């Protein structure tokens, strides 16, 4: 098995990921998928991805709960109130569309922020892969250890970013800690 790590964090999977999985950061928000290379991530890589998964789950569960339950519930209550026999079809449709604005806005904010996080992690891990490739060409004996160190540092940096990203999202959604 190749020791390269062509993967980014599959944050919302609750299991270690192979490099064949897709990045899906929230259930039902599937517009922002990134295909990951067809190589398997080595065991150290799986452990690192699992570490990021657990940290993301911890930090984003209040945000996910807010979007999935609070905003969805408010949307359905609002939309229900739109259905009045005295309204025209167009009025009902406009009313329901207006009810969906907070949910749609929230999904866009989540998608944008998670896409940025994804891209940062991907670039960081690609740097590790590039360094490993160069070290292999130079036949450096510590190439694999350097790769593992680089991936470990990238993962730690990603985990350190999560609380800040979660706080930013909470602020966007007016959630308190």
TrEMBL record:
Domain of life of the source: Eukaryota
GO cellular component, one term: cytoplasm
Signal sequence region: none
Family listed: Belongs to the FAM136 family.
Protein name (record): Protein FAM136A
């Amino acid at each position: 098995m190749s020791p390269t790590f062509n993967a980014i964090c599959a944050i919302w999977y609750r299991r270690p990921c192979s490099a064949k999985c897709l990045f899906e950061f929230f259930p039902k928000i599937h517009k922002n998928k990134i295909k990951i290379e067809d190589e398997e991530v080595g065991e150290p890589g799986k452990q690192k991805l699992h570490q990021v998964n657990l940290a993301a789950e911890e930090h984003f569960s209040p945000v996910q709960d807010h979007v999935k339950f609070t905003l969805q519930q408010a949307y359905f209550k609002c939309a229900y109130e739109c259905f009045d026999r005295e309204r025209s079809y167009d009025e009902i449709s406009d009313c329901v569309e207006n009810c969906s604005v907070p949910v749609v806005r929230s999904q866009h904010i989540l998608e944008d922020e998670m896409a940025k996080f994804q891209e940062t992690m991907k670039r960081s891990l690609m740097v590790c892969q590039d360094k490993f490739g160069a070290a292999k060409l130079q036949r450096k004996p510590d190439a694999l250890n350097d790769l593992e160190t680089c991936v470990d540092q990238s993962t730690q940096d990603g985990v350190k970013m999560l609380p800040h990203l979660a706080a930013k999202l909470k602020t966007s959604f007016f959630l308190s800690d």
